[in-house]
Amino acid sequence: MGTYWQRPFPRIVDGSGRPTAGARADLLPWEDAPHEAPRSLLQRQAALWAEADLGDGVVLRGWALQAAEAWATRHSAELGEIEREFLQVCRDVERCARRQARALAVLRCALVGIAAAALVILGVAFQAQHQGEGYLRTQEMLRAQLLLAEAQTAAAETQVEAEVAARRLAVAAQQEVARRLQHAEVEARAADARRQRAEARTLAAYTLQLRDDNPRLALLLGLEAVRRATGVGEWGVLVEAREALLAALGQDARRLAVEGVLEPPTDALDIPLATACQRAGRNLTADEWTRYLGPGVPYERTCAMLP
Description:
The structure is a single chain. The protein is mainly alpha-helical. The chain has a domain at 192-293. The protein has eight helices and no strands. The protein has helices at 41-52, 62-74, 81-128, 133-210, 215-232, 235-249, 270-280, 286-293.
């Protein structure tokens, strides 16, 4: 069996917005699955529209759209961005369909009127002239008028279809822009995490290298390594930074671990952090910050309680 969005989607409403004969009961807004919280028709259709990318195939029409708008008015606080965007798309499609229907109705009436007039003229001409060139000319004129009316009707239908297609393209473009922005945000977060991970490991290496020659600087670099490793949230980097700081303090990291547990208690590092600041007795200078963290990183005090 394929994934959820690969399985055929049963339409629960037809083009006029009424339930179809093959609608599944578990998709109707008044019957939710036992293991799910009740959801409205708007929420169900919006979720399908967003996840399966079914386009206008799942938009609400007619009475279903009216019911969804009434529900949205009563539960505006429960609407998410997807439900609001889906409801707006349904409204746009409904407006386009109504404009198309009105345009086609006017054109049909005009065509019927022209055809009726043509028949009347043809009858008069037939009675006036049974034979001759005059009758033939009148018949050709009526035929040309009918062809012109048909051409005008076809042109109007083409214009309406073009408006609907333009609306669909605009909606698809908006969705693509939103997807690309979301992807860019994810990439930016990932790049920031990689940068902090690299900085934490570099600072941990400096801490181990300077713990004998410059113990105060090693403590400050170890604190910065722990800060960045905590922001990354990666277990291996955090362990590496903690062990470097504890080594600068002259402590064994294994003594702080709980027996049988990989991660030490959450408060196990509070005392080493405070002790490291007390032993350092100062913060990094501007030159030290630029040398070990880089000129592009804004300066921050490592120990907030120290000047």
